[in-house]
Amino acid sequence: MNRLHFWGVIVAVFLIIGCSTSMEKQFEQAYGPEQIVNREVNGSLQGVSFQKDVRPIIDRRCSACHSCYDAPCQLKLTSFEGLERGASKLVVYNGERLISDQPTRLFIDAHSARGWRHMEFHPLLNERNQTKNANLKNSVLAMMLNLKKEHPLPQTELLPQEFDLDLDKTNNCKKAEEFAEYKEKYPLWGMPYALPGLTEEEHDIILDWLQQGGKICCQSDMSPRAKRIVDQWESFFNGTSLKEQLVSRYIYEHLFIARIHFDSLPNREFYRLVRSKTPPGEPVAEINTTRPYDDPEVEQFYYRFKKIESTIVVKDHTVFLMNPEKMDRFRELFITPDYKVNKLPSYDPKTASNPIKTFVDLPAKSRYQFMLDNAQFIVMGFIKGPVCRGQIALNVINDHFFVAFVDPEKNLLSTDNAFLESVSDYLNLPAERENTLRISSIWYDYLRNQKKYLEAKDQFIESRIPDDKGNDITHVWDGDGQNDNALLTVFRHFDSATVVKGFVGQIPKTGWILDYPLFERIHYLLVAGFDVFGNVGHQAITRLYMDFLRMEAENNFLSFLPKDTRREIRSEWYQGTSAEFSNHIQNPLLGQDRETGIIFETNDPKKEFFEKILEHAGPAAKGHDYLNRCETDNCVDEASNDLEKRVERAFAPIPGILGNQVQVVPDVCFIHITTDRVENDMVYSVIRNKALSSNSFMFHEDRRRIPDHDYLTIVKGHLGSYPNAFCRVDIDQIETFVSKYRKINDKLSYYNFAGKYAIRRTSPDFWEEYDWHCQKFRKDQPIESGLFDLYRFDRIAEKNSNNQSFKW
Fold it and tell me: Which residues of the chain have pLDDT under 50?
C-alpha cells in the first residue's frame, strides 16, 4: 500500500466515524439521550394492544422471515421479547470464525433490553425520550414500515433485480441513526422485504402502537389445569435417588430442544424442559449453558417446565407429547428395572459429551427403546436441532432416503452394557475437544477410533452369533406391531430437511439401518453436542465425523443384502476416483463377511429389501405410497375421497419425471387445488430430489451433481418448512396443469408455466395465498404445524437491466 493510499484509507475511516458520531448527536439533541425503557404495564392498557392487535399482524407478515437464528440481523419477531431485544450485526451462521461467539439465544442468554444492549443488540423501538414524535422518528421498525409504504413493491411481473435473495447475503443491520443512508441507498428495501407490504389498516395499527410507547401488558399466568400437570411432571423429574437423577438427566439431554405438549391442554400450548436454579413452586431461573450436559455450576438445580411464549414456526418446531401413559412408559423403561447407580457421572466435557460413558449405569436396552419409541422426534432433532438451519447435518446426507432400526430383541450389540462400556473410548465425540483448529489431526484420531470400534463390533457379533449367520428380516424393528416410528423417510432440501413417518416416495438410492450406539452418537454429535456459535474447527470436525456415522448406517443396511452385491451397490453411492479412495480409507467393508439370512428372489435386492421391510412392519408401516410407487395404471388410496382420487390420478405421472427436466423446478412447491367450496380445497407438495455422485466431501456439491438421476416426489399435504414456490389451480384444470407441468424442459418453459399457475412474490394476492397455506396446515395438523418460512421463496426469474433479456 503506497503512502497516499494509506492516508486515504485513514481519512475515510475518520470520516465514517465522524458522520456516525454526528448523527448520534443529532438524534440525542432531537429525541434525548439513550435510555432503557420499561414497556410492561400492570393492569389494563388503553389504546392499541400488542397481544390482540399488533402481534397477529407481526406473526402473519414478519415472522415468516424473522424467526430462529437465520433471521436477518438476528431480529426475531416471534415474540415481544424479540422485538424489544432488537437486532445485531453478529452473524450466527459463520463457518469462518476462528474463535467461538457468545451465544445469543432469546429467553436464555439475556432477559432484558439492558442485557441485550450489553451484548451489542441495538433497539428496534425508541429508547430515547418517550414522546409520540420520538416513538416514531427513533424507531427502526417504524422507519422500515414507512419506507415500504413510501416505496411499495412494484406491481411488475418479476421481482426487481435490486432485491438480493441469496441465503448468505450481507445483512444491513442499521440503527435508527444510520437509517437515512440505508433509505437513500435501498429505497425499495422496506419491510416486508421483497414481498407485498402491509395493508393500510395493518400499517396504522402498528404505528399507533409504536406512537403510544410500544407498551405490553403482563403475560398471562399458567392455568390451574396446566399447573397441576406441570407439578406432576416436575415431581417425576426431580426424584432424589441417584437412579432417578441419572434417568432425569438422560431424558433431559434428549428433550432439551423439544416443544413439549401435554395432550390434555390446548393444542397450541407448549413448554420447554430446562434446568433451573429454583425449585418447583418458584419462578423458573433457567441455567444458560451452551450444551445440555455442560456443568450447571450450582450446587443443586431442578428440572422445570417453562411455557413457550413465542409464535410457533415449523422450521424449529419439534413436538414431544407427554401424558400419563408416557410417564408410565418412562417408569417401565428406567425406574422399574432392577439396577443400581452408585455414583452420578461428572459434567466434564471429555465424558459428558460421550453418552455411552455417561449413562453406562442405565440399561442399554432401556435407552435404546426410549429412542425407538420416539424415533421421528429424535431423527428430526438431527435435522432441525437447536439451530433451525441444519447445514452441518445436511451437507453429509442424500436428498431422499429411508431409515429403519435394528430390533432390540435381536441385536445383542445394542443391549449389552458390558460391550458398550468396553468400546466407549472408541466412541468419543468432537464436543469433547470444545473449539479447536487442529482439524486434520483430530480427524485422524476419530478415524482410527471408528475403525477400532467397527473391528470390536465385528468380533463381538462373531462371538455371539456362530456359523456366520447373518441378519434376517426379523432383525429389523417392526415397531412392536403398532409404533409408527418404526420406518422413517428423510427429505433434504439443501440446508433444510423434513422427516416423515413411513417409507414415502420412490425407492431411494440409499437407506440407513440404525442400532443403539449409532443412533445415540448421531444425537449427541448433531444435537446435544453441537454449538451453532462454535468456531470453524468445531463445525468442520462435526461434519467430518458425521461421515463416519452415515457410512456406518449404510453398512448396516448393506449387511441385509446378498453378500456378493454389497460392494457393487456401495460403489453406486460413492462414484468417482476421489470418492472411491475416500470411502476405502474411511469406510472399509468391515463386518460384511456373513451372508444375509434373507432369501432374495429378484435381481434388485435393494428394492426387494425395502419391500420386505414394509411387509414385516405391517401396521407400523403406515400403508402403501400409492402416489409414488404405483405399479398399475390406476393407483389410488381407497381412503381418499372422490376429489382427492381425481387429483391423485392426475398427479400419477409426476413421480415419473426424471433427469434434466427436473432441474428448473423448485426444491419444495406447495400446490393449492381450489374447489367450488373452500373447505374442500386441497394441498399437495412436490419435492425435488437431487442426485449426487457421493457425499464424501464437504465442499463443491455442485461438482458432484448427477442431474440425470434427479426425480420428483409428490406428497399429500404440506411437507417442508421453507416452501420455494406456491402454485394454485382449480380442480377442473388439474389434468391440464399436469400436462403443462410435464412439458417443462428448460427455464423458459418453467417461466411460462409459472406465469399461469405460480404465485409470485409480486402477486397482489401473495399474502392471501400464504395465509391459506398456514391455516390449512394448522387445520390438518393442529399440534405439529407452525408458520412457514419465506426466506427461501424463489423468484421465478429476473430481467437484465435493459429489461429485454432474462437472467435466470
Answer: 9, 11-17, 577, 581, 805, 808
- pLDDT for position 640: 86
Structural domain includes residue 349: no
- pLDDT of 389: 61
Helices (H), 291-416: 324-330, 349-352, 355-358, 364-373, 375-383, 391-394
In our burial notation (b when 16+ CB lie closer than 10 A, e otherwise), range 71-98 reads bebbbbbbbbbbbbbbbbebbbbeeebe
How far is residue 43's CA from residue 81's CA, in Å, rounded to a whole number? 19
Q: How far apart are CA 332 and CA 330, in angstroms?
A: 5
Which helix (H) or strand (E) is 747 found in, with range? helix 747-757
The pLDDT assigned to 808 comes to: 45
Where does a domain end: 217, 236, 260? 217
**Do residue 650 and residue 797 come from a single domain?**
yes
- Distance between start and end Cα atoms, the chain: 39
Q: Which of 580, 596, 623 is the last residue of a domain?
A: 623
Sign of CA dihedral 227, 233, 236, 238: negative
For cell 418517550, the residue is 130
Q: Is 432 a member of any domain?
A: yes
- Using CA atoms, how far apart are residues 38 and 51, in angstroms rounded to an integer? 17
- Side-chain half-sphere CA neighbours of 16 within 13 A: 5
| Residue 351 maps to a domain | no
pLDDT of residue 186: 94
Q: What is the predicted pLDDT for the residue at 11? A: 46
**Same structural domain, 3 and 78:** no
Segments forming the whole domain that contains residue 19 = 1-31
Residue 272 and residue 210 in one domain: no
Give the pLDDT of residue 663: 87
Q: Are residues 613 and 507 in the same domain?
A: yes
As a whole number of angstroms, the distance between CA 208 and CA 681 comes to 37
pLDDT of residue 214: 95
Pairing of strands 400-405, 711-716: unpaired
Identify the sign of the CA torsion 386, 391, 396, 398.
Answer: positive
Whether residue 446 lies inside any domain: the answer is: yes
Amino acid residing at 519: F
Cell numbers for 18: 465522524
Q: What is the edge-to-edge ordering of all strands in the sheet holding 319-322?
A: 302-307, 271-276, 259-262, 319-322
Residue 135's pLDDT is what?
Answer: 96
The DSSP code sequence of 291-323 is: STTS---SS--EEEEEE--SPPBGGG--EEEE-
pTM assigned to the model: 0.93
Residue 108 makes CB contacts below 8 A (sequence gap 6+) with 286, 288
DSSP alpha helix (H) spans, 62-119: 80-85, 113-118
Q: Are 82 and 76 in contact (CB under 8 A)?
A: yes
The tens digit of pLDDT for each residue in 339-355 reads 999 999 999 999 999 99
Based on the domain organization, do 398 and 278 belong to the same domain?
no
* Other Cβ atoms within 10 Å of 543 Cβ, number: 19
Q: How many domains does the chain have?
A: 5
How far apart are the C-alpha atoms of 384 and 377, rounded to whole Å?
10
Residues 201 and 261 in one domain: no
| 466 shares its domain with 594 | yes
**Which residues does residue 400 pair with via DSSP β-bridges, in sequence order?**
491
Residues facing residue 508 across a β-bridge: none
Which residues neighbour 501 within 8 Å (Cβ) at sequence distance 6 or greater? 376, 484, 485, 487, 488, 489, 622
What pLDDT score does 330 carry?
98
Q: Judge if 81 and 14 occupy the same domain.
A: no
Q: Which three cell numbers stand for residue 739?
A: 400436462
For 357-360, the CB contacts below 8 A with 24+ separation are: 357/421, 357/424, 357/427, 358/293, 359/246, 359/250, 360/417, 360/420, 360/421, 360/424
- How far CA 367 is from CA of 711, 790, 794, in Å, comes to 38, 38, 43
SS3 annotation, 110-133:
ECCHHHHHHCCCECCCCCCCCCHH
